Amino acid sequence: MTNPSDIVWHEQTVDRTAREANLGQRGAVIWFTGLSGCGKSTVANELDHQLNQFGRATVLLDGDNIRHGLCAPPGVLREEYSEEFANRFGLGFGAVDREENIRRIGSVAALMASAGLITLTAFVSPYRKDRDRVRKIIETSGAPGDFLEVFVDTPLAVCEARDPKGLYKKARAGEIKNFTGISDPYEAPPNPEVHLKGGDGATPTEQAAGVLAALVERGIIQPRA
Amino acid sequence: MTNPSDIVWHEQTVDRTAREANLGQRGAVIWFTGLSGCGKSTVANELDHQLNQFGRATVLLDGDNIRHGLCAPPGVLREEYSEEFANRFGLGFGAVDREENIRRIGSVAALMASAGLITLTAFVSPYRKDRDRVRKIIETSGAPGDFLEVFVDTPLAVCEARDPKGLYKKARAGEIKNFTGISDPYEAPPNPEVHLKGGDGATPTEQAAGVLAALVERGIIQPRA
């Protein structure tokens, strides 16, 4: 094995098209955004469930699986790494930390879409610029149309009345700083691919079905014959 | 939709077992490690190819797709982000940067394995401690047996004679600092799940077939009837 052509590969033999053909679907990123309590995790989870019932290959990135690993805060990293390491790479909730949090998630979503997975993400992601950067990452590594922004547009009053994690109460009491919708802005997407109105009686199942229809319409999945 | 049980999910409805059943395989991480030029990318690419020919769902993480995105160096991040941002989160090749590079890759590989993908990685990953941390990440988020370390054990002299990217030459000339095998140590895995001897005439196809056999033996894939 001394032929250099055996050693250096410039591209992967299995390209994205082959991975997609293998899975019988197109890779894509379905990016849910909206206020805390708007229902985005619930709808994403329901969509994930519906897609899997159709045999589609998916992944769901959310705070639970991201903030305990890839984007862990300094306090978690300190358990395994040095103080210097934890302070530099650990992510809190300040503006720069949120920027990097979304950048890492976007980069991972791009890799997953390239592997052919329908990749669902559910993060507040309040800043338009950060979401637009993710769109660019996804579309540059793939193609326009690979990124679907889903705006879960539930009125703040409804989100705050739900307050499933008690976060709004703490934010109003000043116990949480930089809380989106209270002390930090939420920049609504001007042109989301899917715009779901929340808090008007639609169930998560109905909302998820609306996104599913958009995936079929765009050829990301095809109804089986 | 005012029932709080509609809003807060503590776990994903589609669990790992369901994703794996959907794909007909077990998620796993196949972690190739070895010196630059040892052939790890070539073997990983060949294994990826063989698995896809069997219809298995895989992903291959390598320097090309990681260092341009998730673990981009400061110079790349500066194109989109502030100087402060790029310097803090961009990754070079110093010890701490390599540590974080491997931590991010390990975290992503864990997410991909949880999605049911057979996840192949090809990085020098010279430090035993960093690889052991990845093993811990993978096994904690999944189960023991989900992480297979594949040591591509090619003698330094063979790697240096190949020198596919001309890096050894530059390292010997002092143009590259901290080069594994020349000016930085490579800590060989004491107990890799698969130990491939390189440079002894085995072709990448044969080496990949050896790893494939280990995957069958461990029940990660099953030969079709």
Automatic annotation (TrEMBL), chains A, B:
<keyword id="KW-0547">Nucleotide-binding</keyword>
<comment type="function">
    <text>Catalyzes the synthesis of activated sulfate.</text>
</comment>
<dbReference type="GO" id="GO:0019379">
    <property type="term" value="P:sulfate assimilation, phosphoadenylyl sulfate reduction by phosphoadenylyl-sulfate reductase (thioredoxin)"/>
</dbReference>
<dbReference type="GO" id="GO:0004781">
    <property type="term" value="F:sulfate adenylyltransferase (ATP) activity"/>
</dbReference>
<dbReference type="InterPro" id="IPR027417">
    <property type="entry name" value="P-loop_NTPase"/>
</dbReference>
<dbReference type="InterPro" id="IPR059117">
    <property type="entry name" value="APS_kinase_dom"/>
</dbReference>
<comment type="similarity">
    <text>Belongs to the APS kinase family.</text>
</comment>
<feature type="transmembrane region" description="Helical">
    <location>
        <begin position="108"/>
        <end position="127"/>
    </location>
</feature>
<dbReference type="InterPro" id="IPR002891">
    <property type="entry name" value="APS"/>
</dbReference>
<keyword id="KW-0418">Kinase</keyword>
<dbReference type="Pfam" id="PF01583">
    <property type="entry name" value="APS_kinase"/>
</dbReference>
<keyword id="KW-0597">Phosphoprotein</keyword>
<dbReference type="InterPro" id="IPR050512">
    <property type="entry name" value="Sulf_AdTrans/APS_kinase"/>
</dbReference>
<dbReference type="GO" id="GO:0005737">
    <property type="term" value="C:cytoplasm"/>
</dbReference>
<protein>
    <recommendedName>
        <fullName>Adenylyl-sulfate kinase</fullName>
        <ecNumber>2.7.1.25</ecNumber>
    </recommendedName>
</protein>
<feature type="active site" description="Phosphoserine intermediate">
    <location>
        <position position="125"/>
    </location>
</feature>
<keyword id="KW-0067">ATP-binding</keyword>
<feature type="domain" description="APS kinase">
    <location>
        <begin position="26"/>
        <end position="197"/>
    </location>
</feature>
<comment type="pathway">
    <text>Sulfur metabolism; hydrogen sulfide biosynthesis; sulfite from sulfate: step 2/3.</text>
</comment>
<dbReference type="GO" id="GO:0005524">
    <property type="term" value="F:ATP binding"/>
</dbReference>
<keyword id="KW-0472">Membrane</keyword>
<dbReference type="GO" id="GO:0010134">
    <property type="term" value="P:sulfate assimilation via adenylyl sulfate reduction"/>
</dbReference>
<keyword id="KW-1133">Transmembrane helix</keyword>
<keyword id="KW-0812">Transmembrane</keyword>
<dbReference type="GO" id="GO:0004020">
    <property type="term" value="F:adenylylsulfate kinase activity"/>
</dbReference>
<feature type="binding site">
    <location>
        <begin position="34"/>
        <end position="41"/>
    </location>
    <ligand>
        <name>ATP</name>
    </ligand>
</feature>
<dbReference type="GO" id="GO:0070814">
    <property type="term" value="P:hydrogen sulfide biosynthetic process"/>
</dbReference>
<keyword id="KW-0808">Transferase</keyword>
